Amino acid sequence: MNMMRYQNLMVGDGLSDHHLYSFACNELSSMIDLGYSRLPKDVRVFIFRDCLSAFRLLPDMNTSAAISAANLLLKSVESAFPKQKKNVALVQFKQAKVALKRRTKSHDEHIITPSLPQDILIHIFSLLDVSSLLSSSQVSRSWNLATHEGSLWRSLFDLHFSHEVMNDIHPGFDWREAFKNECIVYNSSKMLRSGRGYCSYCETVVWHDNFRCPKKQCQFESGKEQLDPMLTRQVVNYLLGITISSDESDSAESGSVESSSVESDSVESDSDDEAVPGLWANPKKHTERIPML
């Protein structure tokens, strides 16, 4: 059952998608941290292979979010994998970093950053999502200056948050800082999106397409109804086959952390008796749809 669930998650598809790569890396990291020693060997083998794929694909992604996610995955690998697999993964990661550095250097030598007026840059940046806007801020000084324009961050704030959380909006208000602070609040409350959603029509955990099931039949049946977004820990609990009621989810979260810290002497243990309690099939709805900064 664990193998079938893992295959259904299609982690490899997420790794090969530029928009989902960071989510897939974070998901693998959580699987390793919270459930690796509880999974059967065949699933651990697939997780190991996907980790190698994640590092191998890193040069093709070449974004700050992708690099951060890959670094986080490496830390999980180093903390849980046996020595031989850890060394193989480390070599793959180092090779990817070298390739990434060479590709970035070659790209920088040939690229000519367009010198556009600030108002045009701001208009272009107004069409970007948060991750793309943050990446654009690292291109040049003029681009960085344009990405600090308050109107950009006010639009993003209006899109993702409610003005009800703001007590003091005044002329010269720093919308970029306000957006950052709200992201910190959501992150600290662990309301982190995973790029996943649970589709009640096909009863499957899927990589969502703008909070819609990617399957055309489900889109037709659901109309404009959005998927229930899932937290990364809920995806891990799905893999472990653990479901509980919504009323128990809050207390189970703390129990999940405690139980996940109790590891066997060997990370390659065959034991699959223990399970991390948590909610996956009926995740609580929340409004957080912000990529991790």
Assembly status: single chain
* Low-confidence runs of at least 5 consecutive residues: 188-192, 244-293
Q: List SSEs in N-to-C order.
A: HHHHHHHHHHHEEHEHH
Coarse morphology? globular
Strand content: 5-15%
Q: Helix- and strand-based class?
A: mainly alpha
Helix count, DSSP H or I runs of 4 or more residues: 14
Query: How many beta strands in the DSSP annotation?
Result: 3
Question: How would you sum up the major sheet?
Answer: 3 strands, antiparallel
Radius of gyration: 21 Å
Proportion of residues in helical segments: 55-70%
Task: Calculate the mean pLDDT score and round it.
Answer: 75
Describe, in plain words, how this protein is organized in 3D.
The protein is mostly helical. It has a domain at 117-165 and 172-189. It is built from 14 helices and 3 strands. It has a 3-stranded antiparallel β-sheet. The chain is globular, with a radius of gyration of 21 Å. The chain starts with a helix and ends in a 33-residue tail after the last helix. It comes from Raphanus sativus (Radish). Residues 248-293 are annotated as: Disordered. Residues 265-275 have a biased composition (Acidic residues).
